[in-house]
Amino acid sequence: MTPHGFLRAAATKNATVETKSVGGKKYAVISFVGDNKAKVNGYVNDRNLVERVETWIDNPFLGDMLFEAIYSDYKDAGGAQFPMHIVQKQGGYPTFDLNVTDVKPNAAVTIQPPQGRGGAGGAAAPAAAANTVPSEKLSDGVYLITGGYAALAIDFKDHITIVEAGQSEARGLAVIAEAKRLIPNKPVKYVVNTHSHIDHSSGLRAVVAEGATILTHQVNKAYLEKTLALPHTLNPDKAQQAGKKPVIEAVGEKKVLTDGTHVVELYHQQNLGHHDGMLIAYLPKEKVLLEADGYNPQAATATPPNPASPYTLNLVDNIQRLRLDVQRIVPVHYPADNRVVTMAELLKWVGRAAPTH
User: Fold this and answer.
1) Each residue of 135-154: pLDDT tens digit?
2) Quick check: 315 and 295 in contact, CB under 8 A?
3) Residues 153, 172 contacting (CB under 8 angstroms)
4) Is 260 left (phi over 0), alpha (psi -120 to 50) or beta?
């Protein structure tokens, strides 16, 4: 994805060349198929300089995601032309913007691969975690699924409702499988998405493959409909293989799911700086609240921050605004020690006393 690396690769990949006009400017477009079986295009201007390189890479959420590198302000560097401004985009959005001040071609350098989190040795851990699905019975027909991002499975009269599908297709498939094991012989009809951030929505591809309806706040609907319908041909997932399209239902300020026995109340978490379209799920009979990113519990021995996080304060404010009688909180980012998180703990974390009735 560098100009010089692109040209070296093109020379060995049986590249083709055609002339194209883009924005009224003519380019020689050099194309070949990369090692991941995706097309790679380089746009060469009339000065024989590579202005842009584009290809597609697999992304669990965005599918065949466009990756672009744009090069400008070329200057001579020891007899070679090098761009002094480099911009990279993923899925149409800038992710990297570099202004180069100096170039030393062919300088000796020793580069060590990164270690630890994010390095070469840590890639397999999320998948392993996603496939571990311990569960806990909260009450008759209500189950907490842990071992990754926390989820709830509720046994309705003729179907299963799941709250939160996790951070990857593997996790979403594991949550669905565990829900069906706990509640056999019933289809998954609804899956509640708390919000559209990628780590809380990547499991929705498994929901699309299942054919279940996704419930999300109305501000997320158009975005999720567009994103979940994107092609995943480079690394086909279950939804791509099944040819399924997303079915999404918008939720406003409140929606109640009930069969006369079980009740799940979905509320919009108002005025949250983290996300405009956040839903919380409250089970009034069990007095259990599932929430995402408002309170991410630290170690039990941790000292509460001062001042408290505005996201956590907002969660408390919304619970009190809605007059919810919460005893147990299920954070989607479940505590590492697997402890039961209570309303008392949440209030202590933000430095507030329990309300009197």
Assistant:
1) 999 999 999 999 999 999 99
2) yes
3) no
4) left
Mean pLDDT of the chain: 93
Domain ranges in the chain are: 3-99, 131-350
Q: What's the CATH fold of domain 131-350?
A: Metallo-beta-lactamase; Chain A (3.60.15)
Say if residues 67 and 90 touch (Cβ distance below 8 Å): yes
Do the beta carbons of residue 52 and residue 72 sit within 8 Å? no
Amino acid symbol at 318: N
Residue 126 in this model has a pLDDT that exceeds 80 = no
Phi/psi region, residue 92 (left: phi>0; alpha: psi -120 to 50; beta: rest), is left
Q: Please tell me the pTM assigned to this model.
A: 0.85
Owner of token pair 């929505």: 201
Element (H, E) at 312: helix 310-322
Each residue's pLDDT tens digit, 87-98: 999 999 999 999
Structure-token match 């899925």, residue found: 91
Question: Angle at which helices 343-350 and 310-322 pack, to 10 degrees?
Answer: 130
